[in-house]
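Q: Convert this sequence to structure tokens.
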Amino acid sequence: MSFDSLGLSAAVLRAVAEHGYTEPTPIQARVIPVVLEGGDVMAGSQTGTGKTAGFTLPLLDRLSQSAPGGGKRRVRALILTPTRELAAQVAESVRVYGKHLPLRSAAIFGGVSINRQIDELRRGVDILIATPGRLLDLAAQRHVDLTAVEIFVLDEADRMLDMGFLPDIRRIIALLPAKRQSLLFSATFPDDIRKLANKLLHSPVQIEAARPNAAADLVEQVVYLVDKHDKRGVLSSLIGSGNWRQVLVFTRTKHGANRLAKQLEQDGLTCAAIHGNKSQGARTRALDEFKRGVVRVLVATDIAARGLDIDQLPHVVNYDLPDVAEHYVHRIGRTGRAGRDGVAVSLVDRDEQSMLRDIERLLGHRIAQRPLEGFVLRPRAAPPARSAQAPRRDAAGKPNQARPRNRGGHKSRRGAGRAARV
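A:
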């Protein structure tokens, strides 16, 4: 199948061809015709399968086919994303694929100047890409009007719920017109997502390009069982011996990301950390340097598990396993994208083996475990045996008689006084 057969306009097809794409991915082939027809969609797809273009292309096409109302441009399409990185990625897709269309877009998210975003909104925007918090701030200040929205896209819905955005999503939906086209995309479908979909969507077409919660088929998954204090050495050894040139490493905490980045720098690896405490400028610079190969290792928390669109990323490492099994799917989905192979390595210590079992239950299969030369998971040390206490002796060297234990429940005066002081 080619993009020409999906019903897209000549202007959109021209942009797709200029971007180097000729054949749609499975999720694109199934979603695009439904969106072009105006139907609601509930789509599940493994991350990295092209679902962003799956809604961006038909959204651009539909908006360009219908003329907006007179006067100032109003927001006709709203794309809601959980993270700044994903908002920036979607905004770039809208810009690239809409380059030959008379449509104006803007991305608004926290961590950057709100005044510049206000200026963009004042000039008029057809397509708005936003994160929930900043969107609600601007709506409360009456800088953004959503009453003319024709198409609403909720991207990475499961991640939205993981990050606690459900109340914000409900407030945003209340600002939208009742008559609209709604599209919901999610890599996983827990019960909360299905409940949200029932309220958000009207007779949606359900599309699943892969089994829910499945990891990308092209990702080779490997587990190494190692002691916690050996993890850094194992990671440096794998990167060095394998000559890995581009590695995305996930840690559980921001502090852990900073500490590991410094340690890897000491091992001679160019490294950067990216997490929620970093400014948006620092995060953008780190990601850009990683993409360009200036930085060899990017250490990230789960905030980077969504929205990082890195071409040909060959290696992802779970330095710490995620607390939530579904996050494993999103993490390793950063590799094995767009038909390319990738490797996802997990370093699992003794305390994380229950998390590993949860992940394997989610995937429906065991992950291959491999031995590491020079590194082993040592048995847990047995508690030291309690040795018999040597009897006390008096000044003459004779053993003192042990005092009988008070078994009657009556405390001595000395004991009572000591308890009172405590």
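Residues 402-422 have pLDDT under 50 and may be disordered.
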